[in-house]
Each structure stands twice: as structure tokens, then as C-alpha cells.
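Human: My hope is that you can spare some time for a protein that puzzles me. I am handing you a single protein, as its sequence and its fold in C-alpha cell form. Could you go through the record with me and say what the backbone is doing? Take your time, and here it is.
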Amino acid sequence: MKTILLITTLVVSLSCFTSCNYDNFFLPQNEELFASSEVFQTNVTGLKSAEILPGSMCEPSWIPLLHKDQLEVGAMILSNSQSQLFIELKGNDQFEIENIQLWAGNKLSQLPANRNGQPLPGQFPYKMAEMNAYHLVIDQNQIGLNYYFPEGKKLYVVAHAEAIDKQSGEKKSAWSYGQLLNTKSGTSYSEYYPCVPTGGGGCFPHLAFCGPESNGNYYFDNTREENTQHIVADNEELIGTVRYEEGKIIFNFSQDWSFFGNTPIASLFGCDTPGGQLTELERGPLEQLYGDFFITTAHYPYYVIQLNVQYCNTSN
């Protein structure tokens, strides 16, 4: 069966800067989709077409599209290559899909939603209507800043579909199966772990921040009696701990994470209160003692610390 392959190309310019308030880093996804043609063929009971896209290195993952009463109206099929996510959405023997809205990312906090946490499909970046089947190809840099499929890190997909019963003409609203976001409406999100090719792996650079988040920024709180706090990567993963002892800021990383590059301490500021005026601090060289790394610097009640780090993995 011939269908239309829709390839999304988004050009995003990200400016990273240092100031009193660091913005969260996220790549907007609001460009239109561009189309080209491709051929897909397969035989799957109850579903019309579906073969994973050329270039995929995975067996497809099938996720039902469910109405809130658990009626299945179709399926979402996911796979990936080294750098692209492949998605197909389609109806089944009973239902046709009239239109879809879809969001994909590595941070649920970036999902368009109202104040009550209800997703807003009208603000999702990928929208299509009146197709026999719906195909998307999403580059890894559209999933999130410093997101790499070969890392095998979890991503989230929220797919909403309007389906119509072929016999009765009744319309149903459906969501991709997964964890519930809203019990009344039946909205949910799906999780996908990209496959990693045999012999793959590597090291992947990230930004990281120290301490708890406050109003979109991260502050290491040096006023606590027990001041060991988390190091948080730009994908919101907790990757280690940081603490202050006798003029030293001490870093300890989880397995597979480490400093990266010639400037592992990307920036270091001190302030008296979160959101207050920042003072750029001088610090000694990065040193290592057993499994810890540390720098010496002046004492402040709060620090704003940005790190250059890397995640390294191997594929068996």
C-alpha cells in the first residue's frame, strides 16, 4: 500500500547565555510538516498497513490507541534509527482515523497543557488529517536539547486521535495507551526506549545543574545543615551529588556519567538568596580525590553552577 510519508524538518536556533536567571533549555517544535512519498507494506491482523520505515534498526513497538472506555480504535507504531524516531498511527477493522495531534519529547514538563495538567492537543507540534495512515519522522534534536537515540534514554509520546466508526459513523476521541494524565478524560502518555544497535554506544555531551529547581533555575543551597544535593542533567536525569565542605564544592557522579571537555565547570556564581544578584566567582582548578572531584571557592549561601558533563555507554 502506498501512503504518504511526512517528514518534519525544524530549524531551531538556541542561544545559551549567562545571567541572574538561567532559562530552561528546550527546542520549540512549531514548524509545519513537509511531505514526500514512500511505500509501506505488511500484513497485521486487524490493522491496515504498517511496516517500519526504511532506515530503522528496531523491531516496531505497538501501542494501542484507546478511547476512555478502553475501546481500541487503532494503534501507534514506534521505531528508531541512530538519529530519527519513526511513528505511524492507524485505525483498525472497526475504526478509521480522521485526524491526529502528536507531541514527542524527553521532558513531560514541556508537554503543552493547561493549569490542571490537561494536555492541549491543539498546541501539539504535529497535526495531520484525512489520511489513510499517518507517518512521522522526527529528528533526535527535535526531541530535546542534547538528546541522542544511541543513549537509549526514555522519551515520551502523547498522541491524540479522532476516530470514526465505519458502520455507525460515531466519532471517538482516543489517546495512546500509557500512564494516565487525567482520569476523567482518559488522557495518557506513552513511554518509548530507543533501541541501541549491537556494538553501538559512545559518549554524549550534556549540560548539568546543581541543587533543587526554583522558578525554572537551579540553586545549590549552602544554608542546609546537610547540604548534599542532586546534580541534574539537561534531560532531568539525576546524575550525581554535590556538597560543600570547608571551602570546597565537591562533585560525585553516578555510573556512566563524568565531566566533559576543557571547561568542565561551565559557570559558577554565588548569591545571597535564590533570584538575587549573582556574583561570578573565581575558583581553583578542578581536582580529584578518589571518586570525588572538587574545586575551592569563596563561601556563599547559594550557588548557581552549570557543568559540562557526558554520558558514556556501550551496547552489548
Summary: The two ends are 36 Å apart (CA to CA). The chain is about 0% helix and 50% strand. Residues 201-314 form one domain. The chain has a mean pLDDT of 79.
